[in-house]
Amino acid sequence: MTPSAADLIRVLPEIIWCGFGVLLMLLQPFLKNRQGLTLFAMVGAAAGTLATYFGQMGSGFFGLVQFDTYSLFFHWLVGLVAFLVILASDSYLERENLAPAEFYALILFATAGMGVLASAQELLTAFIGLEMSSISSYVLAGYRRDSVKSSESAVKYFLLGSFATAFFLYGIALVYGASGSTNLMQIASADPGSNLLRLGLALILVGLGFKVAAAPFQVWTPDVYEGAPTPVTALFAAGPKAATFALLLRIFTTIHAATDFWFWAFWILAVVTMFVGNLGALVQTNVKRMLAYSSIAHAGYTLVAFAAVTTMKLDPETGAAPAYAAVLFYLLGYSLVKVGAFTIVSEIGGQGERYLTLDDFAGLGTRQPLAAAAMTLFLLSLLGMPITAGFFGKFYVFKAAINSKLIWLVVLMTINTAIGAYYYLRVIVVMYMREHKGDVPADAATSLSPTAAMVVAVVALATLYLGLLPNHVLGIVLSQDLILSAR
Amino acid sequence: MELSGHLLSILIFFPAFGALALLFLRNDDDLWIRRLTFVVSVVEFLFSMILLRVVAIGVPGYALTEYKAWISSPPINYHLGVDGISMFLVILTTLLTPICVLASWKGVHHRIKEFHVMLLLLEVGIIGVFLALDLFVFFLFWEVMLIPMAFLIGIWGHDRRIYAAVKFFIYTMAGSAFMLVGILWLYNLTGTFDLPAIQLTLQSAAFHLAPRTEMLLFLSFFVAFAIKVPLFPLHTWLPDAHVEAPTAGSIILAGVLLKMGTYGMIRFCLPLFPEASHRAAPYVAVLAIIGIIYGALVALVQPNLKKLVAYSSVSHLGFVVLGIFTFHTISMQGAVYQMLAHGISTGALFFLTGVLYDRRHTYEISEYGGLATPMPKFAAFFLFVALSSMGLPMLNGFVGEYLILLGTYQMHWGWASWAATGVILSACYLLWAYQRVFFGEVTHDKNRNLPDIDAREQWGLVVFAVIALWMGMGSPYFTRRVATPVNAVIEQTKSRYAEEASRPAAMPQPAALSSETQQDSQRRTVSR
User: Looking at the 3D structure of chain A, how many domains does it have?
Assistant: First the structure.
């Protein structure tokens, strides 16, 4: 049983990402130039993403991974996020005087893990992907070693993350016990009434719920997001979250057995997560922490679409494709915008991330008009205002939920959107309508660094593109054979 | 003509190009920023006048429609169209925008470029709302318009501007989020976002909407519109927003933004959900009447001149809502007319309070007194506008209220008699305020040497006054153009309702009046 060449090409992106990561570590002693390393890492991220072009649709490694439009989409998503985060980190690493090579290598390793998550069709493979991305993330969270907050962030993430991983593993064990396999296709044909299977799936949901920061497993999020270096926070909020959602969606669209069970699980998770995230964000005065809570809220919105997918599964008359599309589109828009928003926060934060409170953002509209305008665009997108990516995301989630007649869920989500308006708007208000209290500190950033400006520009354009001309992306996420394993 | 095929798009996006052009000017080049904005908005106004020639009188349906596929799935199309109702509202918008530029010539001192960019973007959003025929496109403009308005209040407003801007934004946002749910639900039922197509589907005999569903859908739209109008008890954002907004913001807010709510009721609530509208009508009418009387009473006791005008808007818009939910041709024509008349008179009132504020930086009535001595021209204009707002015959306010009361009386005399008290009260609060501000001795030394209005202010006010007079004398010019679309709305609300609920026999049947005879009767009663 040797894997064929086609199988290897199906995991070429992961191979390239890992390879570039290793090369970066090896090159470090020879290449002192930070910009050179940044460029090299970016080339790696891009090469891995583009390598998806060569992959053939179908399952590889005897059913361990599945290469379909769905995994292709998520490979592009995490690759793009990695690319942007690396570009945004350049000025941050310089400012904080951190070693670049390991940093980039860890980002690439994490990305490879996310790639595995997106295409895994077998639970142990998924576990490996989860660990690859998690362990790199733990290290990245504590990368600012001399900062107490960063170390706290790493330890907290590591302890709670390991705990969640244990849940996930235990779930796999129980599912294996019930069905005799860890392959999703084979689990799908197991006895749907088995309580053991349900319990196993519930534990898997807990483990993954932790990774996507769904309440009540979200407690770590604000602290970890706040303490981690800001570009890393951008990565956390975008990449691993999207990839874990990808795995979650694949698991339960493949395993029909527990659909009814999943429905209520998702319904309750969605409602609790939305409220916890939004109400938590309401009282924050630290912008980075506020955005962390907003990530929780957005996980809740995504789970609304999950609930819609489940009902569509139950009712074969309505195809589930639009609901899948809602999840994918939402995650794409959300991830990009979060990267953009955290990049700006990182730049405003200044050396040592000292300027993160709302007061530090006061008067930004006059001091840095372009950064403030971009931040406004991102916040409006997170809020879901028209002509931004966030609006179409929200629109599709609403549409999917209404299609499934989840009117109460939609009403609750609407209320949450209105709550969200308050805290997103507050940042905009502060940037444009308040003056800075006292003098602006001499070491506060006066403009975005060129690399960060590039990231912000790309994300801003993408936000508008997805908001105004979503046809092309919709064509991809609405394709009929999106998830091959779902048949 | 090649261009006329895109006239509506040009109307919507021309101000956006103007805003773009502004960005290329230097930040401190105040004069040219103002001039360019003024020119752009005047050209926009001239563009909109073409509509008067293009929209034929007595022809039902939409003129100048534009249709372009936009998003493939779900099918969303860029569908625009104009009829008699939206035409006048567009023209009102394009008229008020250059006046806003004039009004803020002296009042706005900082971030002048951003101010004018916001003003033009606001115009884009408002005109888009009035011209959109696709629910999705409508919603898009409806939401987009919020942002520049919130900025106008929040950056260039007075002391409590931030509170007012946030309150305005969240109120409207909360309402429109439910409207989005309603729009999607409707899409789910009919399979399209296209307004005419949805109407056809809903009216077809094969399609039956459960009463409960219809009511929920109606409410999801109605609440969003009622917040915008604002209908009592959802009006609490309005006094704050008005008082804190800069003069230009108040003029646009009172002049056009509030009308988006009543326009939405006429365009969406009534034709799409006729039965629910009929069932809700008594409750809505009661709220509208409460709004009329409550708004007037609160205006009566306001020590703040601008707040007084703001509450008078609550009262006047109550008339409009009452006129709409009476389902009578005459009262609905009156409602549309009153929307325009209120835009002119209240716009002018805010312009006038802005003139005072530029000089004294306060709106407190007690700070003034005897202003007729130092500012005779100003006093004359204020009197004229106040009279037009309170509904003096021959001026614009009279026609709208008269038609609304006339139509309402024929359907429900009780409603009409309660609402009529609002007319009396409006005379009370306006004349009393006028007396306190202008008559008697000059009570504050600061007011003794206030300069009278200058040429810029005078021209703005002359425009208001001439239009008020013309609207009062030549009201058939408006009612003739509005009659056909209004009748169409009435027809749509009736077609299904008539089958299920029989009307009281004593009621006159407004549909029996052909639009011709009805216009004649109006000409007799109104223009005398």
Answer: 1
